[in-house]
Amino acid sequence: MRIDLHTHSTASDGTDTPAELVRNAAAAGLDVVALTDHDTTRGYAEAIAALPEGLTLVTGAELSCRIDGVGLHMLAYLFDPEEPELAAERELVRDDRVPRARAMVGKLQELGVPVAWEQVARIAGDGSVGRPHVAEALVELGVVPDVSGAFTPEWLADGGRAYVDKHELDPFDAIRLVKAAGGVTVFAHPLAVKRGEVVPESSIARLAEAGLDGIEVDHMDHDEPTRARLRGLAKELGLLATGSSDYHGSRKTCRLGDFTTDPEIYGEIIRRATGAFPVPGTGGPTGP
């Protein structure tokens, strides 16, 4: 089985619609794909309706968190999307996205960058606007060569010249809320140092004690020594070790299935989840 447990659609900051994403996942030879848009479950219905036969969908989300001043992302799988407390927290994060993006545009303008809010809103479309949309605007303007080039201290990285804080969950609260909603939590790309400051291993140990289920080990932002280090840490802390592409369509260079999760680990995630179940494809529409 080929299992990719971290992807994004136009419901947040990917470039594939949810329907396109599941069709592309099937075309890439995946057996299982997780839809984990940022702080939203809005893409579920479209993805399920288009789910091709032979592909299983894991519903999820990537939750924005912060601990001791350091941002982190928490992947949540197979939780009940209607559970009210977790739904309310996701809404708080989403509601903060537009004023935050507008503030980043304002900072960029003060730095002499001729970016306009209308440009960022056009790029975001119906998705939950975020830093990647602002980054793409910088690419369009020729300020940076690619989206990754915008995530630097000079521009949009945490603490960067145009960075603006947003509402984020305490990760211990996130673990509690996801578990209360029947879900499973995995710390996304925990040692992606190229993105900025990362959470120390001592904090990962505290999160494990609080009920964290796993850490994402095989990821494009982890080199081989980092993956080995994380695999050892997962074993030491009794955490599941996952692998995922973090696919964003054309917004990033990674492809669906570039990194995958071991079927035994996937099976354990399913066994732990009580809020929702993976959805087997029955053959969705094949057209656009």
Distinctive features:
single chain; alpha/beta; eight-stranded mixed beta sheet; 15% strand
Q: Can you characterise this structure?
A:
This protein has 288 residues and is α/β, with parallel strands linked by helices. The protein is 36% helix and 15% strand. The chain contains 10 helices and 8 strands. A hairpin with a 2-residue loop joins strand 3 and strand 4. Helix 5 crosses helix 6.
Secondary-structure topology with pairs:
Elements: E1 3-7, H1 18-27, E2 32-35, H2 44-49, E3 56-67, E4 70-77, H3 84-95, H4 97-110, H5 117-124, H6 131-140, H7 171-180, E5 184-187, H8 201-209, E6 214-218, H9 224-237, E7 240-243, H10 263-272, E8 279-280
Parallel strand pairs: 1-2, 2-3, 5-6, 6-7
Antiparallel strand pairs: 3-4, 3-8, 4-5
Helix pairs in contact: 5-6
Task: Write a brief caption for the model.
The chain has 288 residues and is an alpha/beta fold. It is 36% helix and 15% strand. Strands 1, 2, 3, 4, 5, 6, 7 and 8 form an 8-stranded mixed β-sheet that branches.
